[in-house]
Give the backbone structure.
Amino acid sequence: MPIPFHVPFADKAAAKAMGARWNPTLKVWVAPDPEVAAAMRLQWRVVQEVEPITDLPGEDRAFGSGLFVDLIPRSCWFTNVRYCVAPEDWTRLSVGIRQRAGNRCEICGDGGVLEAHERWDYRPDGTQILKRLVSVCRPCHQVTHFGLSQLRGLEDECAKHWARVNPGVDFDAHVEQAFAIWDSRNRRDWVLDLSIIGNAGLHIVKPVAASERRAVAERTLRDSG
């Protein structure tokens, strides 16, 4: 049986040179034989579990439907699910989210490149509760994270996609309202509640420290062009 390894994105060329093969379904590099596995063990650790996760006890899959701009408060940047679980667990989650949606976007129904996105509930007591993980296409994801898309010069693309998915709804007015909500939420620090991830049996790790998030944001933008 092929053995899966946790290979960081930056090491993919080295893994391929060793003879590793990419499993596009499970989104993981595997060693096809014992010789390749022995070489890979010297650099990377074996992934113990690769089965996609599709069931999140306590998840509300009706929460946060449709396409809308959903700006994350500054105090929560880089504290999303991807940064709070082990990389291989995020892979299992993101693959499972796409699979249970039939490899379609749960907002507009398109296929193509799909990503997993969080839906949060902001409670009056300052708790930011993860309610749902949703499969989204890249254009819908860009609209959702419109603040980041602005920094990347994608405003026109977002406006066009919005018009296709939400015909007749004023995008500029919606964006203005979204930023007003964001400004209000930025006036406090939020505490994450990731219970539905813990309920699935995954270990939640400490997120990026608040003092480091600006540097991480700048590096992420720079690396993405």
The radius of gyration is 19 Å. The beta strands are 3-5, 21-23, 28-31, 114-122, 127-137, 191-193.
